Structures are given as structure tokens and as C-alpha cells.
Sequence to fold (240 residues):
Amino acid sequence: MKISDSVALVTGGNRGLGARLVAELLEQGARKVYVGSRVPEDVAEPVRRDPRVRVLKLDVTDADSVAAAAVAAPDVTLLVNNAGVLGFGTVLDGDLELFERDLRTNYLGALRTVRAFLPALRAAPADAAIVNVLTLIALAPVAPMAGYCASKAAAHSMTQALRAAVAAEGIEVLAAYPGGIDTEMLAGVEAQKADPEVVAARIIAALAAGEPVVWPDDASAAAGAVYAAGPARLEQMLAG
Ligand SMILES: NC(=O)c1ccc[n+]([C@@H]2O[C@H](COP(=O)([O-])OP(=O)(O)OC[C@H]3O[C@@H](n4cnc5c(N)ncnc54)[C@H](OP(=O)(O)O)[C@@H]3O)[C@@H](O)[C@H]2O)c1
Fold:
């Protein structure tokens, strides 16, 4: 997709990777960027000052909020499903309320947002695209994040179904599978973490190149090669 023609919406664009995706889209010349945020006041002042930025109140778990956002932003041509939550817990004793919250946000929230913005994407005068920010551990779980991994696995499957469903309409669907990123989501977790600026830049570069899949950091790129060699190998690697 030609980024300079795009009118983007980034969900959860107020902080973390979402804020970096907003910055990268502006840097690459996007025509307009809607910054989705549950709390509009959380969007940083310098970002608000960019004349191409519109702050959009948006909670992806709230059907009324998503519907109102779609009415307020009818010109979106690029939807970036970035909003996400992570509840820690293993498959044997993780809190099921956290598992449910992750599913409601990471899977159903993203799907609800896609459905709400499809009319806008279909009406796009030129290219239209959807980016789903998934994770490497959508493809094989790590033990302490079992509920999160399952929610992202569901979102991964949704992404594949969506790609097939909208291909004939010319809407591109890019799936991003990052490894650990240095944001609040992983605060306090000892792990290799990529710079969110690098991850955002690689996602937007893959979008510009028309790729269907991106492994946007060095760790995920290495793991992606393992996955390509055989999904069971990635499962063994992450289980270890
Ligand atoms: N960090 C990692 O290691 C990592 C790795 C792979 C993939 N990812 C994915 O990358 C994406 C961004 O994560 P991050 O690392 O930037 O996490 P983060 O720093 O915790 O930011 C999460 C963002 O999602 C928003 N959000 C959460 N629930 C929402 C809801 N119901 N409606 C709208 N917005 C909501 C948050 O808004 P509030 O400010 O209102 O809470 C925040 O803007 C997520 O999809 C995550 O799963 C992260």
C-alpha cells in the first residue's frame, strides 16, 4: 500500500508499540492518522499538535464505542489492530477471568473493529489494508502466558480467514508476529526485547511492500525461520 495515500487508524495508539506505529505512519507521510485510545487525554501533546492527527476515543471491547468510532472516522483506508492486553497465567492454573479478558480484547476486539471499519475500507478511493499485530507466541505458546497465547492464536486464525474473505475486494491483510518488545506490557519480565521503534518501522515497511506476513525484529525473524522449518520445532523451542 502507498503509505502517503493512507488514512490510518491505530488502535491503542496512545502508548507502547501503538504510539511508535503512529509516529512511523506520520514519518512516512500518511495523509491522516486517527489515534485510537480508551482515554483520549492519554495521547501525548506533541502528537496531538500534528495537523494530520485526530484523536479517537475507542475501546475495542465496547461495541458502542467501536460503532461510534466507525461513524466518526468514515475515511479510514488503513486499520491497524494494535490494542492488546496480556494476563499472565499457565494453562493449568491461570485465572480464567484474565484468559477471558485477553480473548475479548485481542481476538474479539480486533474482529469487532475489523467488521465496523470494513465499509470504510471498501469505500477507499485507492489501496485499503488491515494490519493485525499478533505475536510470535500466537504460533506456539510459552507457559506463563497461556491465555494470552490462546487469544493471539485465535486472532492469528481470524487474520487468515479475513485475508481469504477480503482478498477479492483488494483489501490487503498484513499479519505481524513480533517477539518480545520493550514496552509496559513486558515490564518486569526478563527477556530479549526489541526496540518498539524498530518493530514499528519494519511493520510499516512490510505494509508498503505489500507483504502478507512480517517478523518485525531479529528474534522473531529467527523464530519464524524455525517455524517455517516445521511448526513442531517452534513448539519445542518455546516450551523449552
Ligand atoms: N510488548 C511485547 O512484547 C509484544 C510482543 C508481541 C506483540 N505485542 C502486541 O503488540 C501490541 C501492542 O502492545 P504493547 O507492547 O505496546 O503493549 P502496551 O504498552 O501495554 O500497550 C497496549 C495498548 O493497548 C491499549 N488497549 C488495551 N486494551 C484496550 C481496549 N480494550 N481498547 C483499546 N485499547 C486498548 C492500551 O490502552 P491503555 O493505555 O488505555 O491501557 C495501550 O494503548 C499488542 O497487541 C500486543 O499483544 C506486544
Residues 3-239 form a domain with the Rossmann fold fold (CATH 3.40.50.720). Helices lie at 16-27, 45-49, 63-72, 96-122, 146-166, 196-208, 218-229, 231-239.
